[in-house]
Design a protein that fits this description.
The complex is a heterodimer.
Chain A: E1 2-11, E2 14-24, E3 29-33, H1 40-47, E4 53-60, E5 63-64, H2 70-76, E6 78-81, H3 93-100, H4 102-106, H5 113-123, H6 125-129, H7 140-152, E7 158-162, H8 170-185, E8 189-194, H9 197-203, E9 206-211, E10 214-220, H10 221-226, H11 228-234, H12 239-242
Helix pairs in contact in A: 3-7
Chain B: H1 5-8, H2 12-33, H3 35-43, H4 65-70, E1 86-89, E2 99-102, H5 104-120, E3 128-131, H6 139-151, E4 154-156, H7 163-172, E5 177-180, H8 182-195, E6 206-210, H9 216-226, E7 229-236, E8 241-247, E9 254-256, E10 261-266, E11 280-286, E12 297-303, E13 305-306, E14 318-319, E15 324-325, E16 330-332, E17 335-337, H10 339-348, E18 352-363, E19 366-375, H11 377-380, H12 384-402, E20 407-411, E21 418-419, E22 422-423, E23 426-428
Parallel strand pairs in B: 3-4, 3-5, 5-6, 6-7, 18-23, 19-20
Antiparallel strand pairs in B: 1-2, 7-8, 8-9, 9-14, 10-11, 11-12, 12-15, 13-14, 16-17, 18-19, 21-22
Helix pairs in contact in B: 2-3, 5-6, 7-8, 8-9, 10-12
Classes of the chains: A alpha/beta, B alpha/beta.
Chain lengths: 246, 432
C-alpha cells in the first residue's frame, strides 16, 4: 500500500531523514520505533505532505504522492493523527468528527458521515457519552480517541498515528493501544510512530527501528522484541547488569 | 503447498522493495559492527548510506572463503557472543574451518526457511522424516531438523550411521522422507539390494538430497530405485546452511529464498554479472542474518538463474542444479571447460561408465585436451571396429558440447589414478 524508497527530508540545513526505505502492506499494523530526534515524526510529516521531501519516492497505491498537497494526500486515503491530538477545542465532539468527514463530502459521499459517526462511537463509547461536550473540556485520553475518530471519518485506507501515547497515564495508554489493535480487526492499515516501543511492538505486525534518519533494522514485531539491541536501546532492559557474574 | 505463501508467491515489485530495505539495513549493520567490512568500505571510500538500489550492490567488494578463514574464529560476527545461541563450522576439507554463529532470531528464520524447502519437496506434518546427515559442526542436519520439526513432521535424527542401520530404521520406522546426500542415497539403495530388502516393504515417498552436486541422471536413478520423488536443495554454512534454495515438485530448478538472500551470478573470471540462463558463479548477500551476515559472498558454485515462471506458483527465482565448482574450472584454449559437462555427455552415451579423467597438456604453445574414458568391459575387449566407432561418437559429441577439439582414449578402469578413494578428474600437465 505504501512504499517509501530513499526518502530524505529536513528543516532548512538540518537533515533529519537521511535515507528511509520502508513499506506498509494492506491490513498491517507497522510501527516505527526510535529515540527522540531519530526522525519518526518527520517521516510521518513528510508522508502526509506537511513537510517537503528533498529526495526519494513515496508511493501510495503505486502512485507517487511526493510533492502533493496534504489535502490531496488525505483525499487519496492517507490520514494522519497528529502528535498532540490537535482537536478543535471550541467545537463539540460531534462537530470535530463531522469535520473529519470533509474528504467524504468532497468525494460526494457526505451522506455516509452520520453512519460513520456511529461506527466511531461504537469503537469509542466514551466519545458517544460526550457527544455534545466541547473538545477542549475532554481529558487527554479522550482527546486522543477523538483525534483517531476524526481521522477515521475520512475513511482512510492508511491511518498514520504520531505518538498516540504521549502524555497519557499508563492505564489510558493501554486503552488507546487496545483500540489501535481493534482497528486491525476492521481491516484498517496503520502506521504507528511511538516512543513506547514495548506497547507498540506488542500490537504491531512488523516494525522498523529508525536511528539518525535511517532504518537500522526491520523485522516482525516478534523478532524485534527478541533482538538484544532493541531490548537494550528501546525496551529498557539492562542486559549488562543481567549478565554480570556475582 | 507452501509454507509461507505470502513470501514465496510475492510479486516482484514488493519483493524488490523488501530486498532493498533489508539490504540497506544489512549494509549499515555490517559497517557498524564488523571491523572487516568497515575497513573494506573505508578503504574503498564506500559510504553505506549511499546505496539506493539493488544494482548498487555491484559496487561492493566480494567476500571470499579466504576472508572468512583469516577472521577465524569470530572475526566476522556482527553481534557479541552472548547474543549467539549456536556455533557451527564448515567441514574444513579444503583448508581451515570457517566458524559461523546464529542468534535466536537466526535459528527461527533458519527453521522457517528449511520448512519451506521441505514443504516444496512434498513433506507435510504427516511424514516421517529420516535425517541421515551428520549431526555435529556441519550445518546440514540441524537446519533440516529444525524445519522438519517446525513443520510438525516426525523427525528421526539417525545422523550419518551405517547404511545397513539406515535401511533397517527406514523399514521398521516406516520412514516416508529421506534426507541425505545423493551419494549416500545411492549407497543406501545398493545396501538394500545386498540385504535383500525389497522396495515394496518400505514406505518411502520423498527424497530431499543436497550438500553435493548431482546430475539429472542420478535423479532418475534414485527415483527409479527408491520409488520416490527426489528433489535437490542447496545451502552452505557460510551463508546459513540448508534453506537457501530448494526444488519444488516440478523439479525444474531450485527456488531461492530471495526475501532472505540476494543472489547474483557472475562470470568467475571477469566477475561481471552474466545474463539469466548463463552459467557463472553464485554470489550471495544475506538480508536477515543477525550474527553472521555476509556481503557478496563468492560461493564457488556454478549455476545459472532461471527466470521463467514456475507452474508451482512460487515467484522466487530458481537456480539450476549446481554443475560444479569454479575450483574445477579448466581454461583450455581460452574456453572454460567444466568436468561436469564431460560427465553429462558420458552419462548419455551407452557403453561408457561414468569414470573418466581429463588430461590437459600444451604442445608447441597449443593446449591439447584428452579425455580418458572407461568403456564397459564387454566393449573394451570387443572388436576394434565397434570400439573405434564409439570413441569417434564420444569425440564428436564432446567437441560439439565444449566447442573445442577433444581427443578421446579408451582405458581400463584400474588405469585411472585414484587418490584417497576420490577420483582425480583432472590432470593439468601445462606449465602455466
Amino acid at each position: 500500500m505504501l512504499q517509501i524508497r530513499n526518502l530524505a527530508a529536513g528543516y532548512g540545513q538540518l537533515k533529519v531523514l537521511r535515507r528511509v526505505t520502508m513499506h506498509v502492506s494492506a491490513g498491517e499494523i507497522v510501527t516505527i520505533i526510535g529515540t527522540n530526534g531519530a526522525g519518526k515524526s518527520t517521516l510521518l510529516k513528510t508522508i502526509s505532505g506537511l513537510l517537503r521531501a528533498t529526495d526519494g519516492q513515496i508511493l501510495f497505491d503505486k502512485r507517487d504522492i511526493r510533492g502533493m498537497t496534504t489535502e490531496e494526500i488525505v483525499y487519496l486515503g492517507c490520514s494522519l493523527v497528529p502528535e498532540g491530538r490537535q482537536v478543535f477545542a471550541p467545537m463539540t465532539v460531534r462537530e470535530n468528527l463531522l469535520l473529519g468527514a470533509y474528504p467524504q463530502y468532497r468525494r460526494k459521499a457526505g451522506n455516509t458521515a452520520h453512519r460513520d459517526i456511529d461506527r466511531v462511537f461504537s469503537l469509542f463509547p466514551r466519545l458517544k457519552e460526550r457527544e455534545r461536550q466541547l473538545a477542549g473540556t475532554l481529558s487527554g485520553g479522550e482527546q486522543q480517541m477523538l483525534a483517531i475518530g476524526r481521522a477515521l471519518m475520512a475513511r482512510p485506507r492508511l491511518v498514520m498515528m504520531d505518538e498516540p501515547s504521549m502524555g497519557l497515564a499508563p492505564l489510558i495508554v493501554r486503552d488507546i493501544f487496545s483500540i489501535i489493535s481493534a482497528l486491525r480487526e476492521e481491516k484498517n492499515t496503520v502506521l504507528l510512530v511511538e516512543q513506547n516501543a514495548k506497547a507498540a511492538l506488542a500490537i504491531a505486525d512488523r516494525g522498523y527501528v529508525i536511528e539518525t534518519g535511517r532504518i537500522r533494522m526491520e523485522g516482525t514485531a516478534e523478532d524485534l522484541l527478541a533482538n538484544r539491541d532493541v531490548q537494550r536501546a528501546y525496551l529498557g532492559r539492562d542486559l549488562d547488569s543481567e549478565t554480570k557474574v556475582i | 503447498m507452501y509454507w509461507e505463501a505470502v513470501k514465496e508467491c510475492m510479486d516482484r515489485e514488493s519483493l524488490e522493495q523488501l530486498q532493498l530495505e533489508r539490504l540497506q539495513s544489512t549494509l549499515l549493520r555490517v559497517y557498524m559492527n564488523v571491523p572487516f567490512y568497515r575497513k573494506k568500505f573505508d578503504d574503498l571510500r564506500i559510504d553505506p548510506d549511499a546505496f539506493r538500489s539493488l544494482d548498487d550492490l555491484r559496487r561492493l567488494p566480494f567476500t571470499t572463503k579466504e576472508d572468512l578463514r583469516t577472521s577465524y574464529p569470530y572475526g566476522m560476527f556482527a553481534v557479541p557472543l552472548r547474543e549467539v545461541v549456536r556455533i557451527q563450522a564448515s567441514s574444513g576439507t579444503t583448508g581451515m574451518p570457517t566458524v559461523v554463529g546464529y542468534t535466536r532470531n537466526d535459528i527461527k528464520n533458519w527453521s522457517h526457511l528449511t520448512a519451506r524447502i521441505l514443504t516444496a519437496g512434498g513433506v507435510t506434518q504427516n511424514d516421517i522424516v529420516q535425517i541421515a546427515f551428520d549431526y555435529g559442526l556441519f550445518t546440514g542436519a540441524f537446519g533440516l531438523h529444525y524445519g522438519a520439526e517446525r513443520l510438525g513432521a516426525s523427525v528421526i535424527p539417525v545422523s550419518s550411521a551405517h547404511t545397513r542401520r539406515q535401511v533397517r530404521i527406514m523399514q521398521d520406522f516406516k520412514t516416508t522422507a529421506l534426507l541425505c546426500t545423493p551419494s549416500h542415497a545411492v549407497s543406501i539403495a545398493d545396501t538394500m539390494v545386498e540385504m535383500g530388502v525389497s522396495i515394496a516393504s518400505l514406505s518411502l515417498k520423498y527424497g530431499l538430497f543436497g550438500a553435493e552436486p548431482w546430475s539429472e541422471a542420478m535423479r532418475r536413478e534414485l527415483e527409479d530405485r527408491l520409488k520416490i520423488v527426489a528433489t535437490d536443495n542447496y545451502g552452505l554454512s557460510e551463508v546459513m546452511g540448508p534453506g537457501v534454495a530448494g526444488e519444488c515438485l516440478e523439479r525444474k530448478g531450485l527456488h531461492i529464498n530471495e526475501d532472505h538472500f540476494l543472489v547474483e551470478v557472475v562470470d568467475p573470471e571477469s566477475l561481471e554479472p552474466v545474463a539469466p540462463g548463463q552459467t557463472g558463479e553464485l554470489v550471495i548477500t544475506t538480508l536477515t542474518k543477525e550474527a553472521f551476515p555476509v556481503v557478496r559472498f563468492r560461493t564457488r558454485d556454478l549455476t545459472s538463474l532461471l527466470t521463467d515462471p514456475c507452474p508451482c506458483g512460487r515467484t522466487l527465482v530458481r537456480m539450476a542444479k549446481v554443475t560444479g565448482r569454479t575450483d574445477d574450472m579448466l581454461k583450455v584454449r581460452g574456453t572454460n571447460v567444466f568436468p561436469s559437462q564431460i560427465e553429462a555427455v558420458l552419462f548419455e552415451i551407452e557403453g561408457t561408465e561414468p569414470h573418466y579423467q581429463i588430461v590437459v597438456d600444451r604442445k608447441g604453445g597449443v593446449d591439447e585436451m584428452t579425455v580418458m574414458v572407461v568403456l564397459s568391459e564387454s566393449l573394451f575387449f570387443d572388436e576394434m571396429k565397434k570400439q573405434r566407432e564409439l570413441i569417434e561418437r564420444i569425440r564428436s559429441r564432446l567437441s560439439a558440447e565444449l566447442g573445442i577439439v577433444v581427443e578421446v582414449r579408451p582405458v581400463e578402469k584400474k588405469t585411472l589414478e585414484q587418490s584417497e578413494g576420490k577420483a582425480r578428474r583432472v590432470i593439468d600437465k601445462r606449465k602455466l
